[in-house]
Amino acid sequence: MATRERITFSSLPFLCGVEAVAGQDVSNTFESHSHTTAVVGMVDVGVRVIAHGHGESRILRGGLFFLNPGQVHACASGEEGAHSYRLLSVDPAVLARVASEISEKSVSGVWFGCVHATHDTISRDFGRFFRMLSDPLAPALDKESLLYGLLSEIILSFAQDPPEVCAVGRQDAAMARVRDHIRTHHAEPLTLATLSAVACLSPFHLQRLFTRRYGMSPHRYLTHRRVAEARGLLSDGAGIAEAALAVGFSDQSHLTYHFKRVVGTTPGRFVQDNLLTYECAAKPETFYD
């Protein structure tokens, strides 16, 4: 029977220095080796066995594994059979930069103190990121924001010497600038770097403070804003595909997906059921300010 073993490598254009790797039905044994990058991964199916200088670690489904640059190790599937996994190969300079942004101090490097751990939130976000990564039409801001948040949480949870989170205050004026920028430029392909520049804050602090101030992350606020604008266009008689492109969604299906999550119904059903009474309803700004 032909093997289904497959390993794919994907560079991330929105964050140089990070590569995403997905292994499916891997039964191959990888002899002792090391990487120049840091590796953070999660097992999806089966058991991954990592032999390292301190012994052997068995990572079960949903478990996380960490390897430092230069750490010699060997990998294999457990006796249960082939396993599947997803991992991020991260340039040490990227981890140091994220750690520096967290503390607002220069951090020379990040070193992981364990090979194997479990963390429900990180495992969930790991899966979310890779699912989003496989969608070529998913907005870059969503992917970038989730990856920055994931790397930040990994560093704070598992670095041997985690950075202390710098207290930067409420930054209400900066958060208002970001909110207004999203409102004005919602139809454009916004990036986390752009919004961070508007706020004059690091991506880490921007995401934390914006969520604290407005109850949702910048990328979620952008999605809600686009839905609100699409709702207005639909009320004026625009077609669904036309409205989707006009507000910044990549296509009609993405508008439909987010519209239903935010409004509770599909754009088509909204037009059919509510268009005649829309003038009596609250304007979009009322819902998404």
TrEMBL record:
Question: To which species is this protein native?
Answer: Desulfoluna butyratoxydans
Q: InterPro entries under this entry?
A: AraC-bd, AraC_XylS_family_regulators, Homeodomain-like_sf, HTH-like, HTH_AraC, HTH_AraC-typ_CS
Entry-linked SMART domains? HTH_ARAC
Protein's UniProt name: Arac-type arabinose-binding/dimerisation domain
List the residue ranges forming a coiled coil, or say none. Answer: none
Going by the UniProt record, its keywords in alphabetical order are: Activator, DNA-binding, Transcription, Transcription regulation
Highest taxon in the source lineage: Bacteria
Kindly list the GO molecular function terms attached to this UniProt entry.
Answer: DNA-binding transcription factor activity; sequence-specific DNA binding
What PROSITE patterns does this protein map onto? Answer: HTH_ARAC_FAMILY_1 (PS00041), HTH_ARAC_FAMILY_2 (PS01124)
Any idea where the HTH araC/xylS-type domain is? 176-273
Q: Which Pfam family, any one of them, does this sequence belong to?
A: AraC_binding
